[in-house]
Amino acid sequence: MTDNKKVAKEFWDALNSQDWEKLASVVTPDFQHDNDVDFFYGREEVVELLKGTAVEGLDYHQHIDRVTAEGDIVVCEATWTGNHIMDMWGVPATGKSFAVPVIYILEFKDGLIKRLRSVYRDRRLEQEVSKQ
Question: What CATH number is given to the structural domain containing 94?
């Protein structure tokens, strides 16, 4: 059996370093990403979305604080940090920094990530960028 925690680390490392080829190599072709406000389907769509945020200049980083694995599920407790330099979730760009706690649930199939669920409070981002 593939070490799912290792693959999850490879995913976060690839995302943080904007290594799109590596990121694509650790997810299934029918990869799904959903969060509180959006749903994305398919490896190409998700990679293009992430590339697009990088092109827009969204400065962000996922700091993985704790990883727990059970079978085909890996849960990552993280802090999403960055600078709010583009519209996000209807919140106009403020240029302010943010740090938002996030729970990521990764579901695996045959050693690759099939689904990524991001669970966070979308109001928390608004609060973070408006408090400074």
Answer: 3.10.450.50
